[in-house]
Specification:
alpha+beta; Beta-Lactamase; Helix Hairpins; Heat Shock Protein 90; 5-stranded antiparallel β-sheet; 10 helices; 12 strands
Length: 452
């Protein structure tokens, strides 16, 4: 609307100025500034005034009004900035928006002819003999603006309704994928959907769905692990009980059991009870390991001395199978650790290296450190671990060779307990193994314990 108004005013000014230039030339031609009785000029002025709903003042060189189309200012002297500037050669066109008119000044110029030429005024010199001060109404522009304003208001209302409708439709279209995500997540939460959800409509929904699917997979894995753990615990605890019951029933079924056979059965029962006790103790240790790291009893421990004590304790077991235990201390290591749990880590690793070793084998424990961590490496020359089992050896009750593990008294909890103890110290444990050649465990733990 503003652009239209500016353009309309500009066109009206241009039209009026063209008409005024023509009339100004006629004023000189008919010598109107000296004689205002010319009917032709008066008719032109009247016609211009009526055509543009305006008023025309003819001002001579003495600043006196010699013609007023309204007939009210003739003979009066007019002194205004616009008129003075026009006499000096500067035409002005002002638009008064508040009062609704355009004011234009047009010079009445006479060109000196050759007959009238002098030395001071050569031919072709332009002399401003007077000024036409014209006021032109802009009522038509205002009326047109009013009509356009009404129409633009209607257009605005229609556009607002259209945009509102489009916004509602788009909002439903845009929200629909998120509603499907919400519905799918709700179904998963209620247990009705176990498959991964997929809503690939937008990049945002895809990211949300992928994150949820990852979380869902971890939850399923955790739930499966929990169920497997419960099943394994039940199985492991039930097996010795079943054996005890079978042995006891066998004794009860034979009233005249010889003392030797009775003693043999009681030894077997005691063995099964001892195995049951070991499983329960390992389970209790594992439960304690699941507690927060704040439960660690941290103290400054000389790891060289602690490792030597543990190896000394386990050497009798190693001698039974003619296995050599060797400690390699690269440097003296003093660390802030929980001595009990650290002993448990070393005992489990070295004991496993002895149990799953070959006759006349070797177990090497290497102790080293840098400025941040200390490392304990336990390497054996035993039977090794298959590659497909390396990622599962820390699972509770998992055994690479179940028959061999039970034969040597393993519960399948040792490495799970060891790993938890290492993690409580904010350390790491890695394993390398070659089937038939041996296994190497590397434990890396910070020298200084920091509570985060």
């Amino acid at each position: 609307m503003q652009n239209y108004e500016d353009r309309a005013v500009e066109v009206r000014q241009s039209d009026v100025q063209n008409q005024l230039k023509i009339i100004a030339n006629h004023l000189i031609t008919y010598n109107y500034l000296q004689d205002t009785s010319s009917e032709v000029i008066n008719a032109e002025l009247e016609q211009l005034s009526n055509l543009y709903s305006g008023r025309v003042l003819i001002i001579n060189g003495n600043l006196k009004v010699i013609k007023d189309t309204y007939g009210i200012s003739e003979g009066k002297t007019i002194i205004s900035e616009e008129v003075i500037k026009c006499f000096k050669g500067t035409s002005i066109a002002n638009y008064d928006r508040n009062n609704g008119f355009i004011e234009i000044t047009t010079p009445i110029v006479e060109i000196v002819s050759e007959e009238m030429a002098t030395e001071r005024m050569p031919a072709g010199t332009e002399l401003t003999r007077g000024v036409m001060l014209t006021s032109v109404s802009t009522d038509i522009i205002v009326a047109t603006m009013a009509v356009l304003n009404r129409k633009s208001l209607i257009i605005e209302i229609i556009m607002f309704i259209f945009i509102f409708v489009i916004a509602v439709i788009l909002s439903k279209v845009l929200i629909e994928p998120f509603e499907r995500v919400t519905k799918a997540i709700t179904e998963v939460g209620e247990g009705h959907l176990n498959e991964p959800i997929s809503v690939p409509d937008y990049l945002e929904t895809e990211h949300i769905v992928n994150a949820f699917n990852d979380l869902h997979e971890r939850m399923k894995a955790l739930d499966d692990s929990r169920q497997e753990f419960v099943a394994n615990v039940s199985h492991e605890l039930k097996t010795p009980i079943t054996s005890v019951k079978v042995l006891a029933d066998s004794l009860l079924a034979q009233p005249d059991t010889p003392a030797e056979l009775y003693r043999e059965f009681m030894v077997d029962i005691a063995t099964e009870i001892e195995r049951e006790d070991k499983i329960i103790n390992d389970l209790l240790a594992l439960v304690k390991m699941d507690k927060a790291a704040g439960d660690l009893n941290i103290s400054t421990v000389n790891m060289n001395e602690l490792t030597e004590i543990i190896l000394k304790r386990l050497r009798p077991i190693a001698r039974k199978r003619d296995i050599e235990l060797l400690l390699v201390s690269v440097r003296e290591v003093v660390a802030e650790v929980d001595e009990v749990k650290m002993s448990l880590i070393l005992t489990n690793l070295v004991e496993n290296a002895i149990k799953y070793n070959k006759e006349q084998g070797k177990v090497t424990v290497t102790l080293d450190a840098d400025h941040q961590f200390f490392t304990v490496e336990v390497a054996d020359t035993g039977i090794g671990i298959p590659e497909e089992s390396l990622n599962r050896i820390y699972e509770r009750f998992y055994r690479v060779d179940k028959s061999h593990s039970r034969e040597i008294g393993g519960t399948g909890l040792g490495l799970a307990i060891t790993r938890n103890a290492v993690l409580l110290h904010r350390g790491s444990i890695k394993v390398e193994s070659t089937l038939g050649e041996g296994t190497k465990f590397l434990v890396k733990i910070p020298l200084s314990h920091t509570i985060l």
